[in-house]
Amino acid sequence: MSIISWNCREIRGASTVRRLKTLCRKFSPDILFLKETKCKKEKMKYWNKAGYFEYSFIVDPEGSKGGIGLWCKANIQIDILSASKHWIHAHVTLSNQQQFLFTGVYGPSVLTDRNILWDFLNSIRPGNSPWIVLGDFNQIINSKEKLSKNKDIRGGSLLVDSINYLGLIDLPTFGNWFTWTNGRQGDDLVWERIDKTFSNVKWLHLFPETWVEVLPIAASDHSPLVIHVNRAQQKKPYSFKIEMMWLQHPQFQDIIRSNWSRTNSGSRALHVNSKLNVITKEIALWNKHEFGNISTQIQEIEASLQAIQAQIHLPQNQMMEVHYRKRLEFLLNCEEIMWAQRAQQMWLVKGDRNTRYFHTLVNHRRNKATIKIGFRTPFSLKKQLKRIPILNEDQIQHLTKPFTKFEIETALFQMKGSKAPGPDGMPPIFFQQFWDTVGDDITGMEVLTHMRFPVHWRKLIMECISTSTLRIRINGDYSGWFHPTAGLRQGDPLSPYLFVLCTNVLSSYLVQAEQLKHIQGPKLGRHVLPLNHLMYADDLLIFFKANQETCANVDLLLSIFGQASGLFMNKDKSEIKFSPNASANQKNHLLSIINCKGTDSLGKYLGAFIDGPKPDRQNAELIIDHLQQKLSGWKASLLSQAARLTLIQAILSAIPLYTLHFTSLTDKYAKKCNSLMKNFFWGNGDAGKKIPLIAWRKICRPKAEGGLGLRSIQGLNHAILGKQLYRIMTSKYGLMGTIMRAKYVDPYPNGNLTCRPYDSTLWKKLFKYKHLGTDHLKWRVGDGSSIHLYDRYWVPPDYHTHPFTHVSQLMSGGFWDSAKLRRVYNPRKIQLISQMNTSYTNQKDILVWGNSSSGKYELKDAYPISMTPQNDRPFRNCEWQAIWKLNLPYKIILFWWKTLHKGLPLRYNLKRRGFNIEDTCLFVCDESETESHVFKDWPFAKLVWFESKLMIRTENINQNSIIDWITHWVQNQDPLHFNIRNSLIPEAIVICWSIYTQRNQVLFQDGNRDHNEVLHRVSHIMNNTRHAFQLATMDPFFALDRSYHHLIPSPSGNKTHSSEVTIYCSWKKDVSRQTKSVILFTNHNSHIYPLVMLVVHLKNNILSSVAQCLQRWLLMPHDPQLKAAIRIPNRTLISQLQQRSLAPQTYSIVIDDIFLINSPHKNFTFTFIP
Fold first, then answer.
1. Is there a contact between 30 and 59 (Cβ–Cβ < 8 Å)?
2. Are strands 31-35 and 2-7 parallel, antiparallel or unpaired?
3. Alpha-carbon torsion 206, 211, 215, 221, what sign?
4. Where residue 1144 falls among pLDDT bands split at 50, 70, 90?
5. CA–CA gap between residue 242 and residue 665 (Å, rounded)
6. Residue 169: pLDDT above 50?
7. SUPFAM superfamilies, from UniProt (predicted)?
């Protein structure tokens, strides 16, 4: 079946008639929908007589405007449900009795009149019927659907709201993207995508291969749309790839380990490749017998399980029932993972299955999949050594170091396991999961132990370029191998590094041209060097004076670089913007020299607007467009609320992050962004919008404070802009920090920030949030020489009759001098300062951000203080973290969270939200339908509680409600009640959920008021929950949630060489003396020899104390030939000693000292010991 939709712009024209006849002959459409016919029905009967169609329905035009018509063939039955000058809504029955709803749309040209169309579409209730909506909507959604100098988009949000409200999906299109043009030229030219085709999920289930062909514009200013419903496709050949669900099966590990242990001859690379080929064949055979068609297996086991449960009274069936039920649970879990992998969204929500969502997304993605192949002209890299920067000795030494197993391993485990499988079908998770088996072979292939720079390094790079081979996968089948003429393909991991090496030459050219006064950039401040250029990958901004000589020099320099590298400037895409002082004649003359076009606005750079009128507003609209585009592909009705929450946290919240770094959102746009996320969280379904019964500001609280941990866009924007200001104040070498500090920060010692009326717009944005950075800065003491005693970020002195001016004068030999401290500070401040670690290697003092443990400005720590304090508090003083840690399905925990916030749609809550209804209980009760009534005082609830395993009489509960009673037990931390609390709380919450579920079934689904059904549901949930956490111990086959841990080893490994001394670290507490003791010792022939001991106060941080003990021992004199492996029973400290950036600010200076003391010879290694 096929459908043609076309705005023909008057059907009586000769060219229009010829085009329409050609379309009918070529595509033989079963249904034809025409808009703007401008012809009455009496003159439209020609198309029936011509033999193309048997049935027609015509809506006459109003004068010479409008007119729409619908035609169909004889084997199709159409029943018109509604019609107007803007739509035809019909029920269609095909010859095979397949039925669906059809809505043809002709949108009003006037913006305000389109509300009539949106209201009609929103009123349609398709129910379970497939539905297709197509036509000329006369409305674009976002900036991608418009090509014009005028970027104004009005009314798009209303169409987006209707699409999301109705759960419609934009069907994949091929051919032209834009479907309408005004036919003008130059700056007046406009192209837009206003002809669209949407469908609901049921349509895709009925016609999963639907796609839309957009034909060229001719004989009208609109493109004809051909909707192809059935597409004949060749069966795609099978290509092997790792299925994530296989990792759930314990036999999979045995197959990998047994086949990898085989020995092969040849090179290391051939050795690894042969093993992968063997494993691929073995896994494919195993999958065929063990899994096969997983959907068929699920159906078979469900049928068997149903038969067994029907005869469950037989003893032999009881054991079989457990086995079949667990097998079914295993296969269901595998099916969900399989569809999630195909949808390329590897988040799985515990306790909530979204298989229908994944299935729909995969079908939609498959229809959109297409490959376009193009070839680029090869470039040659000419040798030109002049002016190219060279490596220094330290860089050469770093490059010649061999790659270690630790480096390869670290890089591997930083990859996302489900991404980018190679041609062998093995994604990163395969190597991560079986690293203990395959690691030695892989690293043995990559470690370059004999490479010396520069000869071998150049040779290695050239081999990568000259010996690379590629093959292309088209519709599931691989082409043959071929050699690319341009060396590396785009996307190759080596490609960006080589590109940076090339563009670094251009950067050096520009810097030297600035030094020689050939190209002079503007000075942005009195004490700032001129700004010559900004470069990011292949995007380049050059700043220079608008005169003939400079323009000629720029053109010459770019030409020289192009000849040397083959990377020439694309002058069709390059633009020049002049300052307002340049005259029109001067602009034209300079443009002719460089041969580029001029512009008044640079528009977008790196995906955001950087100049022009109101760039903040343009960027805000850009953020909203991106959010709407992402939401248009997600259908809330297919996802549970827990899944929607995961999508908001993982994806939606991350979309605006980049743009918010230089954009200050107004309240209007921030509320719009929050509104989009809020509406998606509460969900839209066929029955209409859900009612948000909990305020968004409460949802955006941290989980520990009763929220869901989402972030409000306003607070996030403020925190990000505050981070930008913090970087300016603390970054010594960054270009932006250097310029901004010279312009806007007073010289030392004041260091005040200033903001004047004529300062830049960006600085004014950042200055508004200076309190987020400046109010929380403090000094990390190094040698104390940079810290003035009266510095605003240091502890203010109490006494002033002393000769000291800097903190370094309060130290002696790297220690705080108590006598000097007493001359400056009171006892309380002396105790505070004495706990600060100091440097023994004369490191510099640095400013750190005091609100985070790392000393760095972190968004997660800045966001809470950026939010405007809210006076309202959660309804209950509850241990929220304890609730989130309950071993219950996520949907039930989310139900309880809503209950605690009075967020259930009970009649009392609805009336409180402004609904004009009575709040009395619907079950012949005179009381208000509150949470307390439904879960405690309702007679049906009383019966459920008494008949449950808890056997509770609700009238004997001392608290006012069941909710208060459960909250009391959650907050009860008495160890004697631990078991009672852990068993009572989950079951009580599940009982409440089951009561509420039964109440909804009685009211809305004609259910029975059966307390046994409630208790059976409770038992089912509790048994499944217990099994989910006990399956791994019951049978390895059912270890569905096996956690995978990888412990990054020390770069030197855990084994010590025979020439090394092994030193052990240990510590103990002495509560009676209120002390901790840290000791380093050696163990020789079962005798312990202490090396150093440090005794500190009991409240001191143990990791800080261990680091101080190591620091003291390393500062002692040692034999230069001494090599020692120091073993510490703490993985966190080992990680910090190996990567010092991980150390918290409280003792990071000590870690830095240890690193610097050990760095010259690296005689001491740090390893973990259990």
1. no
2. parallel
3. positive
4. confident
5. 44
6. yes
7. DNA/RNA polymerases, DNase I-like
For tokens 């329409």, the residue is 20
Segment 970-994 mean pLDDT: 75
Quick one: tokens of 796?
A: 């203010």
Helix (H, G, I), strand (E, B) or coil at 832: helix
| Rounded Cα gap, residues 1101 and 1106, in angstroms | 9
Q: How far is it, in rounded angstroms, from Cα 743 to Cα 274?
A: 63
476 residue type, one letter: G
Range of the domain at 522: 496-600
Beta-strand relationship, 169-170 and 195-199: antiparallel
Residue 789 near residue 829, CB atoms below 8 Å: no
In a domain, 189, yes or no: yes
Residue type at position 842: N
Rounded CA gap, 1012 and 205, in Å? 37
Mean pLDDT taken over the chain? 80
CA 1156 to chain centre: 37
Evaluate whether residue 610 is within a structural domain. Answer: no
pLDDT tens digits, one per residue of 91-114: 999 999 999 999 999 999 999 899
DSSP letter (8 states) at residue 198: E
- Pairing state between β 99-106 and 131-136: parallel
Could you say which of 693, 710, 727 is where a domain stops?
Answer: 710
Q: 297 with 199, same domain? A: no
Residue 547 is encoded by which pair of tokens?
């005169």
Residues 900, 876: Cα–Cα separation, whole Å: 7
Name which of 712, 727, 720 is nearest 774 in CA terms.
Answer: 727
Spatial distance between the Cα atoms of 455 and 164, rounded to a whole number of angstroms: 60
Whole-number Å distance between alpha carbons of 301 and 325? 8
How many structural domains compose the chain?
7
Pair 1114, 1002 in one domain: no
Give the domain-ending residue among 536, 570, 600.
Answer: 600
In this structure, what token pair is assigned to residue 823? Answer: 């001359």
pLDDT of res. 175:
86
Q: Give tens-digit pLDDT for 417-459.
A: 655 566 556 677 666 766 666 666 655 443 233 333 356 666 6
CATH number at residue 1157: 3.30.420.10
User: CA-to-CA distance for 9 and 67, rounded, in angstroms?
Assistant: 10
Q: What are the φ/ψ torsions at residue 71 (nearest 5 degrees)?
A: -125, 150
For the segment 270-276, the average pLDDT, to the nearest whole number, is: 71
Shared-domain flag, residues 1011 and 907: yes
Record the tokens describing residue 53, joined without a space. Answer: 């169609």
Entry field: residues in the chain:
1170
Q: Are residues 140 and 12 in the same domain?
A: yes
1129 and 1152 inside one domain? yes
What CA–CA distance (Å, rounded) separates 325 from 925? 41
The single residue listed with the structure tokens 């620091």 is 1111
Angle at 488 between CA 482 and CA 494, to 5 degrees: 140
DSSP at 933:
I
Residue whose pair of structure tokens reads 């000589």 in the numeric block: 549
